[in-house]
Design a protein that fits this description.
By secondary structure, this protein is of the alpha+beta class. The chain has four helices and three strands; from the N terminus they run βααααββ.
């Protein structure tokens, strides 16, 4: 499975998990990456969300790794995700943080 979200939204979800101040989100966006703590929090939030989603064929989404900027994503993986016929898009709004979209798709 593959997950897409904007850096500011991913940082917001990660920060909200452990009530990290919203200023840390701005710092992460300015740096262009999540620090280790926010990266771990983001992975945890996505793993929890993935448990509640299933594909059209009934399989559950499962995450096997988290890539955040500036980590590279192989072109073939990106193309497979963008061409996926099993995709779930969600809007997420955490008060006090950035609102955004999350897309889960199979590879």
């Amino acid at each position: 499975s593959r997950l897409y979200t904007a850096l500011d939204h991913g940082a917001s979800l990660a920060a909200a998990l452990s009530v990290v101040p919203a200023g840390a989100v701005k710092d992460a966006v300015a740096a262009g990456t999540l620090d280790d703590s926010l990266r771990d929090n983001f992975a945890e939030v996505m793993n929890v969300l993935a448990r509640f989603l299933s594909t059209g064929s009934g399989r559950r989404f499962a995450l096997n790794r988290v890539l955040c900027p500036p980590d590279p994503v192989e072109a073939a993986v990106l193309a497979a995700a963008e061409g996926s016929d099993e995709r779930r898009e969600l809007a997420a709004d955490v008060p006090g943080y950035t609102r955004g979209q999350i897309a889960f798709c199979t590879l």
